[in-house]
Amino acid sequence: MLHDERILKNKFAYFFAIIFVLCWMIFFAYNMFKIFLRGYGLAEEYTAFKIPIYALYFLILPLLSVTFVSIFKESRKMFFYLNISLFLMIIFHAIIFYVKYQRTASPATYLFLYVFSNLLFVVGPVVLINYFKHIPAKNEIENIGKHND
User: Fold this and answer.
1) Nearest alpha-carbon partner for 82 in 119, 29, 123
2) Could you tell me which residues come within 8 angstroms of residue 33 by beta carbon, excluding any fewer than 6 positions away?
3) pLDDT tens for each residue of 74-118
4) DSSP state of 144
5) Considering the entire predicted model, what is its pTM?
């Protein structure tokens, strides 16, 4: 897996990226299964945002699937797909936040939890994966034996 054309710096970065993308794929696939196949639908409070939520489900899950495959293919497009997925997940969570924020008893606490959980579970891991991006040396002959992995 870790050959000259690798896309991430070390094995931990590959493992972390695979686990992160796989967990979010399971989350979105489970919710799509609940909503579409079991007929649960969305809660009453989300009916105003039904179409954007369904559109985001149908955009995020395929993008995460392509990201997952790109990790194993070691394609540099993985970063593009991952960052687009991040952007769409933030929009998705913002819609959920907007609906629940109107109904909560303590808005400041809910706002803090929303920001903290998004930074911890969505933005932070993607920034970490982007940080672990492998950038090959410009002149490999001069850098023989000087790997700083």
Assistant:
1) 123
2) none
3) 888 999 999 999 999 999 999 989 888 888 888 888 889 899 999
4) T
5) 0.81
In whole angstroms, give the CA distance from residue 88 to residue 80: 12
AA letter at 125: P
> Could you tell me if 128 and 82 are in contact, meaning their C-beta atoms sit under 8 angstroms apart?
no
Give bridge partners of residue 133 from the DSSP assignment. Answer: 8
Residues 6 or more apart in contact with residue 79 via CB below 8 angstroms: 7, 129, 130, 133
Is residue 9 within 8 Å of residue 136, measured between CB atoms?
no
pLDDT in tens, 49-82: 888 988 999 999 999 999 999 999 988 899 999 9
Identify the sign of the CA torsion 47, 48, 51, 53: negative
Identity of residue 145: G
